[in-house]
Design goal:
The chain is mainly beta. Helix content is 6%, strand content 45%. The protein contains four helices and 34 strands. The strands form six sheets. Strands 6, 9, 12, 15, 18, 21, 23, 24, 26, 28 and 31 form an eleven-stranded parallel β-sheet that branches. The longest helix has 7 residues.
Length: 328
């Protein structure tokens, strides 16, 4: 009645706040789920009740309480245009999940998300996370980011990882991954269209190799991967491209471990050689006799053969282009 007051439960802040607000753990406005009245609120993750007092003719937010750490989730239903630096995630030992649902996050030249020590960021199904400078995602030591089924493009750097980066599903990184962290490709295909530099890289799931590793592919194209240690688990795949004797994908590390059953898949372009064979060092490491890859390639013109178990391959002509054309 007009003489009394009634309460309307409002949305959680995560359903009303922008992605920028959510990352920084600060909300400028909360909307009621009935009449869309905007209320100013201070810093913090809050659930509350909208109270309208007819005697005073105003709304107030009452009984606001903090919700549990790790409960923050942002479900996108449109492209997100960032209007300021996203900054460091708020909340100690917190988890933030962003479900992109096939939409894009446009950075507009601003700084991306920084994941601090003890924090976890989960990015799922982001259609294009683009336009960030210096990085779309920065992972500090002790932080963790998990990325699934997402594409990164037009960033100064896609990910600067000094913590832990977990990749699953099908991802595309167009502007590189750098830092002193650990990267795991547990399943799916992650394609890297720029160089990758990490401390430790593992392709395949060490805990359940038979179930997962057969679906784990690291596709580096003609780019360079450098690390202290790189591990290819049984059933995983390293995919690379050779366009010429000067342009090809390569892996360089202090130590490379290739389990039996791991696969190297080479895409060989037309015209790599004319007559004489060429030898390319596709894998380089300080340890010896590491190359246990099962090799495959896609061009009938060539022979693609290991020179030794230290990463060198010889490409020679098996047939001329005319012969292949005639056979087909």
């Amino acid at each position: 009645t007009e003489e009394g007051a009634f309460e309307v439960e409002i949305f959680k802040a995560t359903e009303a706040a922008s992605l920028t607000d959510l990352v920084m753990n600060t909300y400028d406005a909360i909307y009621s789920n009935m009449d869309q009245i905007i209320l100013e609120q201070g810093t913090g993750d809050k659930i509350g009740y909208l109270l309208y007092d007819y005697t005073k003719g105003e709304h107030t937010l009452n009984d606001a309480v903090a919700f549990e750490e790790g409960d923050r989730q942002y479900n996108m239903n449109t492209d997100e245009d960032v209007a300021e630096d996203l900054g460091v995630m708020g909340g100690e030992d917190s988890t933030l999940t962003v479900n992109g649902n096939g939409y894009a996050i446009n950075g507009n030249g601003f700084e991306g998300i920084t994941v601090g020590d003890g924090q976890t960021l989960e990015l799922n199904n982001i259609q294009d996370m683009n336009g960030f400078d210096p990085a779309a995602v920065a992972i500090e030591e002790g932080g963790t980011a998990s990325i699934a089924d997402s594409t990164f493009s037009d960033n100064y750097s896609d990910v600067v990882n000094d913590g832990t980066l977990n990749l699953s599903g099908n991802n595309v990184f167009n502007d590189g991954i750098e830092g002193d962290g650990t990267m795991l490709i547990s399943d799916g295909t992650s394609t890297f269209n720029a160089d990758v530099d990490q401390s430790i890289i593992t392709v395949g799931n060490e805990q359940t190799p038979q179930a997962k590793a057969t679906d784990s592919v690291m596709n580096i194209g003609t780019n360079m991967v450098t690390a202290d240690n790189i591990n290819f688990i049984n059933g995983s795949t390293l995919a690379l491209t050779v366009n010429s004797a000067e342009e090809y994908g390569s892996v360089i590390a202090q130590n490379i471990t290739v389990e039996t059953g791991a696969k190297l898949q080479a895409t060989l372009a037309q015209g790599i050689i004319q007559t004489q064979p060429v030898t390319l060092q596709l894998l380089s490491a300080e340890n010896n006799d590491f190359n246990n890859f099962t090799d495959s390639f896609d061009n009938q013109m060539y022979k693609f053969e290991k020179v030794d178990k230290n990463g060198a391959y010889k490409i020679s002509l098996a047939k001329t282009a005319a012969q292949v054309s005639a056979e087909n």
